[in-house]
UniProtKB/TrEMBL annotation:
<keyword id="KW-0378">Hydrolase</keyword>
<dbReference type="GO" id="GO:0006508">
    <property type="term" value="P:proteolysis"/>
</dbReference>
<keyword id="KW-0788">Thiol protease</keyword>
<keyword id="KW-0690">Ribosome biogenesis</keyword>
<comment type="similarity">
    <text>Belongs to the Prp family.</text>
</comment>
<dbReference type="GO" id="GO:0008234">
    <property type="term" value="F:cysteine-type peptidase activity"/>
</dbReference>
<dbReference type="GO" id="GO:0042254">
    <property type="term" value="P:ribosome biogenesis"/>
</dbReference>
<dbReference type="Pfam" id="PF04327">
    <property type="entry name" value="Peptidase_Prp"/>
</dbReference>
<protein>
    <recommendedName>
        <fullName>Ribosomal processing cysteine protease Prp</fullName>
    </recommendedName>
</protein>
<dbReference type="InterPro" id="IPR036764">
    <property type="entry name" value="Peptidase_Prp_sf"/>
</dbReference>
<dbReference type="InterPro" id="IPR007422">
    <property type="entry name" value="Peptidase_Prp"/>
</dbReference>
<keyword id="KW-0645">Protease</keyword>
């Protein structure tokens, strides 16, 4: 199971994305669900850098159970914050759709700060 936890602030801006686990929908190296989540995550990071001039801090560990932590806490302060927001919304939509289509492999939880 891939668990995706997204934390947002009171203004609904994303602060952090944490992706943990492997889907287990196929053999290692041929798991379509893992590949889909990985593609969405890497495309999001690359798009933020190229289109929004933003390089968030992130930690990545593919070997030990699959792990990605993206710090987006400065995203709402960017010059191109609206571009970054559209990229994030597209990323979240893709993850949510994967979870809706294959809930046995991908789960997305979105939490807002109180």
């Amino acid at each position: 199971m891939i668990d995706i936890n997204i934390r947002k602030n009171k203004q609904d801006w994303p602060l952090q994305v944490k992706v943990i686990g492997h889907a287990g929908s196929g053999p290692y190296g041929y798991d379509v669900m893992c590949a889909s989540v990985s593609t969405l995550c890497l495309n999001f990071l690359n798009s933020l850098e190229v289109l929004a001039d933003y390089q968030p801090n992130y930690q990545l560990n593919q070997k030990d159970g699959g792990y990605l932590l993206i710090d987006l806490s400065a995203m709402d302060k960017l010059v191109k914050k609206e571009t970054a927001r559209i990229l994030y919304d597209s990323f979240q939509l893709g993850l949510s759709q994967l979870g809706a289509d294959s809930p046995e492999f991908v789960r997305t939880v979105i939490r807002s700060q109180d």
